[in-house]
Here is the input.
Amino acid sequence: MILDAFRLDGKVALVTGAARGLGQAIAAGLAEAGADIALLDRLPLADTMRQIEALDRECLAIERDLDGLTVPEASGIVDRVADAFGRVDILVNNAGMIRRAPALDFTPADWDASLAINLSAPFFLSQAFARQAIAAGHGGKIVNLASMLSFQGGSSVPAYTATKSGVAGLTRALANEWAALGINVNAIAPGYIATELTAALRADPARAGAVLGRIPAGRWGTPEDVQGTVVFLASDAARYVHGTILPVDGGWLAW
Here is the structure.
């Protein structure tokens, strides 16, 4: 049955940035599809854990910051998940940050922090995950979180634009190397989603109106809007999908 290909029963997923917003919704969606979930965030994870456990799935919480993540630390995180569940099949690199300032005023500290969390941490975790998957012999799925600014330049977010463009390039590069090893590497590019990250933008009537006026769907996205896309890319239904950057944007890029 084709619908069975979308199920994740018996799979284990590690989701970063899972305490709220997109990460929380993604974790819940993967659990609803049948996966057990390891959650990682620097913020408390109790609320997301309750959602996962309410779906009768097993859950592991790892509370830590990804800023300055080293290669051994990334390996330790993946090993901890594999030790807890006996395997790890899916990695969702959702954790991210955004710092806003004109390029002329952007500080080295903000640049370095953005690079560490948005690009270096996903690479090191993907590397550790791929090594685990290859050693276990069962392949795996990596879903990265790109952005509309993987395609566009934006304004006053130079580090975010650079790192999310990097995520798109990294997704393609890893897909090229790992597809033949049974590892699918893809990304989604969420559009304007109603989360804490966009709260300031939505509170500005002029800017919010300009954004909403360009979205063909006529509304801001919700975290739940990304769930099905991530479940698809994490499932066997996407077994021949490699290196794609899939917008979930209400038609923003089509305008």
